[in-house]
Design a protein that fits this description.
Layout: H1 22-33, H2 40-48, H3 52-66, H4 70-77, H5 80-90, H6 93-105, H7 112-121, H8 124-138, H9 142-149, H10 152-162, H11 174-187, H12 196-205, H13 208-222, H14 226-233, H15 236-264, H16 271-281, H17 286-297, H18 301-308, H19 311-321, H20 325-328, H21 333-348, H22 365-376, H23 383-391, H24 395-409, H25 413-420, H26 423-433, H27 436-448, H28 455-462, H29 467-481, H30 485-492, H31 495-505, H32 516-529, H33 540-553, H34 556-570, H35 574-581, H36 584-612, H37 619-629, H38 634-645, H39 649-656, H40 659-669
Organism: Cebus imitator
Main location: cytoplasm
GO molecular function: calcium ion binding; calcium-dependent phospholipid binding; calcium-dependent protein binding; cholesterol binding; GTP binding; identical protein binding; ligand-gated monoatomic ion channel activity; phosphatidylserine binding
C-alpha cells in the first residue's frame, strides 16, 4: 500500500486487510476459478479488500501453491470491462501505468488523453518507477517510444515530464516567482507568436508550491488566469497537456474528479478512463477525489458509478470508491478545506470582468436608424440586418438609435420591431433595445404576473445585481408599472422568502472590505442557524433574521471571509450545508447568493448550461442571461462554461437553438472558445 507522506493522513479508499493470509486468499481464488464457470463475487470481494502490496503476495502464493500465474488465470476466467478492472488491480501501480502507456502508443493512432492523464499527474518517484517498469515489462525505452509516437511541443513537454525532475523544495523564492510570471507573460500575451519553450521549462520543472504562487501572481498581474493564456496562446494536444499540468499543480484530486465526471456524463461511458483512475487512485487520494466530486457536481461519485455501470464491474468500482457520500448525508471536511484554499486565492484575485458587446467604433446612429427602417419596410423583413446592427452596438448606442429613429421617421422603433419579428428572436432583440434597468424591471414583472410565480427569475436578478443596479431597477419599475417593486414582491410572495427578496430589493448591501472580527461572528451565526455549531445560543427567530441580514447586506469581500471562517470553524462548506439543512425557495435564494459571492460568472455559466441541457430549452432564462450579461461579464461566463463543461458556450448554443434566434445569440456570445 502506498505510504502517505510523513505526518500526512492516508487518503486512499483501500487499506491493508487485517489478518491477511496470502495462502488462504490464493486457495480461495483457485476455488473460485475451478470447474465450470467462476465465482465472480468471491474474486471481486477478495481483490478489492486487499491492498496492492497484499495482492502481490497473493500472486506469489498462488504460483507457489499451483504453479500457475494468477493474472493469466484471471484473464482466462473473466471477460470484458470486469476483466480489465480486476487485472489492473492485480498489477503493481507502476506496471499498470506502463501497460496503459504501452496500449496508448501501440497500433494505429495514439491515445493522447491517456498519455496526458498519466504523465501530467504522477510524482517524480512514480515517474521513475514507471520508466523502470516499462523497461522491465517490454524491454523498451519509454522515452524513445514516446518520441517515436508523438511530435512537436507536445512531445517535448511529455519528455520533460518523463524525466521526473520537478523541483520538490517547499521554500519558494518571491523573486523567482515574479521572474517566472514576467517570463510567462512575455512568452505569451506580450509576444507576437508564442515562446513555447518558456512554458515548457517553467511548467515542467518548477515545484508545485512555487507554481501555485506563480499562478496567483500571474492572475493579479495580468487580470486573467494562466489557463486563459494557455488557451489563447497554445493549441491542440500541447494545449490540453499544459492545461492538465496546471490542473494537477492546483489540485490533483480535483483533476481526477473532473476526469471521472466527464468519463460518465452524457451518453456512453469512457470505461478505460474510469478503470484507469479508479485503480490508480484507490490507494492514493480516492477520498479527496470523492469529496471534491461531491462538492463540484452536487452528487456522489458512488451514485454516479451506480447509475452508469452494471454487474460485477459496477460492484468492483463501488468497492474501490469506498462509500456513498450522498447516503451518509455528510460533507467531507477535507473538501471544505480544499474549498477554503480556493477561496483564499479568490479573495486576493482581481479578475477583470469583460462583456462581449462593446461600443461600435465609428458609430453613426443616423445610418443605423435608416438601415433598420429599410430592413423593416415593404414586403418581408431583413432579420440579418436587424441582428447585425443591434447585437454589435452597446446599450447606450441602441438608445441613441431609438431616439434618432423617432426623430427621422416619427415612429417608435420598439413598436416597429414588435410588428416585424416574433417569438424567441423578438424577445431577445426587444430585450437588447431596452435600458438594462427597465429590462430587469420587466423580467421581474413577468415573473410575478399571472398564475404562479417564477421564483427562479426573481432570485437570479435580485441576488446578482449591484446596489446601483437595484436602485435603477426600483426606479424603472415605479416608472413603468406605477407601483413600487417592494409592494409587488410583498403581494406575490410570502414568509422568509419574501423577507429575503425585499431585503435584496432595497439595494443596501455594504460596499466596503472585510472585517475579520465581524466575519468570525457572522460565521458563528451561520453555524448556529445551520445547526452545526457546538454551542448554539440565542432563539431561532433572532438567528434566522441575523443570518438573512448577513447574506443580504454584507459586502462580497466580507462574505468571502465569512465563508472561509465558517469552514475553519466547522469544517463544512456553507453552500453544501444550506442545501442540506434548508429547503424550497429560501434555500434556493441563499444558495444563489453564496454562489454569486464565490464566483458570479460561474453562477451564470451553470444557469446557462441548465437552460440548454436535456430535452427542450429554457429560452426565457437563456435570453435573460445573454441580454443582461452581454456588456458586463459574458466573456468571463464563457471561460467558466468551457472550464466546467468541457465545451464552449458557442457550441452549446449552436447545438440547442436554431434560425435567427441562434444567429443573434451567437453574435452576443462573441466568439468560439
Amino acid at each position: 500500500m502506498a505510504k502517505p507522506a510523513q505526518g500526512a493522513k492516508y487518503r486512499g479508499s483501500i487499506h491493508d486487510f487485517p489478518g491477511f493470509d496470502p495462502n488462504q486468499d490464493a486457495e480461495a481464488l483457485y476455488t473460485a476459478m475451478k470447474g465450470f464457470g467462476s465465482d465472480k463475487e468471491a474474486i471481486l470481494d477478495i481483490i478489492t479488500s486487499r491492498s496492492n502490496r497484499q495482492r502481490q503476495e497473493v500472486c506469489q502464493s498462488y504460483k507457489s501453491l499451483y504453479g500457475k500465474d494468477l493474472i493469466d488465470n484471471l484473464k482466462y476466467e473473466l471477460t470484458g470491462k470486469f476483466e480489465r478492472l480486476i487485472v489492473g488491480l492485480m498489477r503493481p501501480p507502476a506496471y499498470c501505468d506502463a501497460k496503459e502507456i504501452k496500449d496508448a502508443i501501440s497500433g494505429i493512432g495514439t491515445d493522447e488523453k491517456c498519455l496526458i492523464e498519466i504523465l501530467a499527474s504522477r510524482t517524480n518517484e512514480q515517474m521513475h518507477q514507471l520508466v523502470a517498469a516499462y523497461k522491465d515489462a517490454y524491454e523498451r525505452d519509454l522515452e524513445a517510444d514516446i518520441i517515436g509516437d508523438t511530435s512537436g511541443h507536445f512531445q517535448k513537454m511529455l519528455v520533460v515530464l518523463l524525466q521526473g525532475t520537478r523541483e520538490e523544495d517547499d521554500v519558494v523564492s518571491e523573486d523567482l516567482v515574479q521572474q517566472d510570471v514576467q517570463d510567462l507573460y512575455e512568452a505569451g500575451e506580450l509576444k507576437w507568436g508564442t515562446d513555447e519553450a518558456q512554458f515548457i521549462y517553467i511548467l515542467g520543472n518548477r515545484s508545485k508550491q512555487h507554481l501555485r504562487l506563480v499562478f496567483d501572481e500571474y492572475l493579479k498581474t495580468t487580470g486573467k488566469p494562466i489557463e486563459s493564456s494557455i488557451r489563447g496562446e497554445l493549441s491542440g494536444d500541447f494545449e490540453k497537456l499544459m492545461l492538465a499540468v496546471v490542473k494537477c499543480i492546483r489540485s490533483t484530486p480535483e483533476y481526477f474528479a473532473e476526469r471521472l465526471f466527464k468519463a460518465m456524463k452524457g451518453l456512453g461511458t469512457r470505461d478505460n478512463t474510469l478503470i484507469r483512475i479508479m485503480v490508480s487512485r484507490s490507494e492514493l487520494d480516492m477520498l479527496d477525489i470523492r469529496e471534491i466530486f461531491r462538492t463540484k457536481y452536487e452528487k456522489s461519485l458512488y451514485s454516479m458509478i451506480k447509475n452508469d455501470t452494471s454487474g460485477e464491474y459496477k460492484k468492483t468500482l463501488l468497492k474501490l470508491c469506498g462509500g456513498d457520500d450522498d447516503a451518509a448525508g455528510q460533507f467531507f471536511p477535507e473538501a471544505a478545506q480544499v474549498a477554503y484554499q480556493m477561496w483564499e486565492l479568490s479573495a486576493v484575485a482581481r479578475v477583470e470582468l469583460k462583456g462581449t458587446v462593446r461600443p461600435a467604433n465609428d458609430f453613426n446612429p443616423d445610418a443605423d436608424a435608416k438601415a433598420l427602417r429599410k430592413a423593416m419596410k415593404g414586403l418581408g423583413t431583413d432579420e440579418d440586418t436587424i441582428i447585425d446592427i443591434i447585437t454589435h452596438r452597446s446599450n447606450a448606442q441602441r438608445q441613441q438609435i431609438r431616439q434618432t429613429f423617432k426623430s427621422h421617421f416619427g415612429r417608435d422603433l420598439m413598436a416597429d420591431l414588435k410588428s416585424e419579428i416574433s417569438g424567441d428572436l423578438a424577445r431577445l432583440i426587444l430585450g437588447l433595445m431596452m435600458p438594462p434597468a427597465h429590462y430587469d424591471a420587466k423580467q421581474l414583472k413577468k415573473a410575478m404576473e399571472g398564475a404562479g410565480t417564477d421564483e427562479k427569475a426573481l432570485i437570479e436578478i435580485l441576488a446578482t445585481r449591484t446596489n446601483a443596479e437595484i436602485r435603477a431597477i426600483n426606479e424603472a419599475y415605479k416608472e413603468d408599472y406605477h407601483k413600487s417593486l417592494e409592494d409587488a414582491i410583498s403581494s406575490d410572495t410570502s414568509g422568509h422568502f419574501r423577507r429575503i427578496l425585499i431585503s435584496l430589493a432595497t439595494g443596501n448591501r455594504e460596499e466596503g472590505g472585510e472585517n475579520l472580527d465581524q466575519a468570525r461572528e457572522d460565521a458563528q451565526v451561520a453555524a448556529e442557524i445551520l445547526e452545526i455549531a457546538d454551542t448554539p445560543s440565542g432563539d431561532k427567530t433572532s438567528l434566522e433574521t441575523r443570518f438573512m441580514t448577513i447574506l443580504c447586506t454584507r459586502s462580497y469581500p466580507h462574505l468571502r471571509r465569512v465563508f472561509q471562517e465558517f469552514i475553519k470553524m466547522t469544517n463544512y462548506d456553507v453552500e453544501h450545508t444550506i442545501k442540506k439543512e434548508m429547503s424550497g425557495d429560501v434555500r434556493d435564494a441563499f444558495v444563489a447568493i453564496v454562489q454569486s459571492v464565490k464566483n458570479m460568472p460561474l453562477f451564470f455559466a451553470d444557469k446557462l448550461y441548465k437552460s440548454m441541457k436535456g430535452a427542450g430549452t429554457d429560452e426565457k432564462t437563456l435570453t435573460r442571461i445573454m441580454v443582461s450579461r452581454s456588456e458586463i461579464d459574458l466573456l468571463n461566463i464563457r471561460r467558466e462554461f468551457i472550464e466546467k463543461y468541457d465545451k464552449s458556450l458557442h457550441q452549446a448554443i449552436e447545438g440547442d437553438t436554431s434560425g435567427d434566434f441562434l444567429k443573434a445569440l451567437l453574435a452576443l456570445c462573441g466568439g468560439e472558445d
